[in-house]
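Action item from last week, closing it out:
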Amino acid sequence: MPLPSSPPPPAVDRRAFFAATAALAGCAGARREPGAAAAPARPPPRAGWVPSEAVLAGIPRLLTLTGVPGVALAVVERDAVIWSHGAGVRRLGRAEPIAPETVFEGASLGKPVFAWGVLGLVDAGALDLDRPLSEYLPLPEVSEPRAKAVTARHVLSHTSGLPNWRRAIGPLVPKFAPGERFSYSGEGVFYLQRVVERLVGRPFGAWARDAVLRPLGMGDSSYVWRPAYEGRLAAGHLGDGEVSETVAPAGRKLQAQADASGKPLEDWTYDDAVRGAAASFPKPGPAPEYVLPVSAPPAMLLPNAAASLYTTVADYARFMAHVLGAPVGGPGAAGALRESTRRAMLTPQVRVSPGLSWGLGWGLEHDHVAARGDRAPGYAWHWGNNRSVQNFVLADLAARRAIVIFTNGENGFKLYERLATSAAGREAACLLSPLVG
């Protein structure tokens, strides 16, 4: 969808207009006596999707009602992060306030970041979106004919037919022919991660750091645990207040192995991750549906492009600025995408439901609800759900505006629904979809 050179003008509130006019008239006609104190300057009006003072004042109440310990937010306007905010605490019972630099488990929000890196490989000619991944990396578990036909385009648009995560060790078998329809899949993303590691000849974590995260200004982000996250991480909480983290405990265990071996986690290959998981989780068993199953690799193998991103709202908002068109260095700079490729990322590849489609890494929402979702999308969105951590990103593609919301509680989706709706001035159709929350 062509992006305008400037955002549309904001709607004018009549009462605000006349109040401002009267204030200007008063300023023009009034004289201040010598020695009299100057009137306090009025704060500048809030831009775009920045929450109002009233909304911010109501956040503590919403945290109490939802049982969510804390929330971090950031707003993007065009090429810049213009505002960020934290409220609540990182862990119940401790005076550890949430801040824009607080580290969260990003959960599935790692998928769009990975998609950006994959598309960079497409720009470089190292990967063909429509070539079967099995031709790049033959795997024993990818032997079924439909599985061997899965491409990077299928993975990024969630049309591979592969399951979200296998519940038991075994072959990868699509539920339908790749490209036939939408079906969300973490397995497909991890499969593509292994292909990327083969293509670039480097460990995935190190490649992601150098090719994507650092160039996009995401210096606090990583797909593996860092010792520096200790004391900065927002602990996830279940609805009853119990602390429940998903990937961080495994990350700490693997970090101990990395320290003992002298090989940094970001330099671990897939084979290293397999050995590490075997040592950290020697007796895998059944797990509830909401937990990444240790009985079914690759769900608990780290790093994991589909689920293990650690990040901050400040970092993720900087990423969103690039998704919306902010340049990444000069032409050919590390992390930069061609403009046509960036637009393709936000172009519908498959219809999800009336009014919703999926691009190459992003959910897309159309300004209308119709039987066919073939009009240019107006909004991009994605969520991150590790049960005890609930995150959400919504972007207005025409206005080049976005809001990033991270929460550390199971009921966080109830909070981000209200905050995103208030910021955008409308209820996003994706928030009504069973995919979200």
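Closing note: The first helix runs from residue 14 to 29.
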